[in-house]
Specification:
152 residues, alpha+beta, 2,3-Dihydroxybiphenyl 1,2-Dioxygenase, domain 1, 2 domains, five-stranded mixed beta sheet
């Protein structure tokens, strides 16, 4: 059976301060953002379910072909909820890395907050040897850093 989907186009993250988030993601990814604009078209509110929606947005290209869209809702404005992975509807972004130590250090220097004191290495099961770390961006969005186990 052929599915009607062929790839992930982008991941969108709602942020509380677009300038702060642009700075964080620029430092983390080591590349500039693209296509910053205000979204306020006549049918945007209909699409989103917010009649007077107005959004400051920008895009980043993530290595591997998926884009990241940052969205700062100017109207309506809602307060952020407490960070945590157990919230229903929570989504995290997973970045595959080649060098966990370097990626983790870069994330922390970009302003990420570590969830655990250091990355962990999976000790058993089908992912034995995989290294994983969770960090959070300035809005509490979880970013998973994943270094697959090295081929034997």
């Amino acid at each position: 059976m052929t599915l009607p989907f062929d790839s992930v186009h982008h991941v969108g993250i709602t942020v509380t301060d677009l300038e702060r988030s642009i700075d964080f993601w620029t430092r983390l990814l080591g590349r500039p953002h693209r296509d910053r604009r205000i979204l306020d078209g006549p049918r945007l509110g209909e699409l989103l379910g917010y009649p007077a929606a107005r959004i400051d947005s920008c895009w980043f290209d993530i290595p591997g072909g998926v884009a990241l869209e940052l969205l700062d809702y100017l109207e309506p404005h809602e307060d952020a909820y407490d960070p945590g992975n157990a919230h229903p509807g929570n989504v995290h972004v997973c970045l595959r890395v080649d060098d966990m130590s370097a990626a983790h250090a870069r994330a922390l220097s970009a302003g990420a907050v570590p969830v655990s004191p250091e990355p962990i290495e999976v000790k058993q099961g089908p992912r034995a040897g995989t290294k994983v770390a969770y960090v959070r961006d300035p809005d509490g969005v979880t970013i998973e850093l994943l270094q697959p186990r090295q081929a034997q």
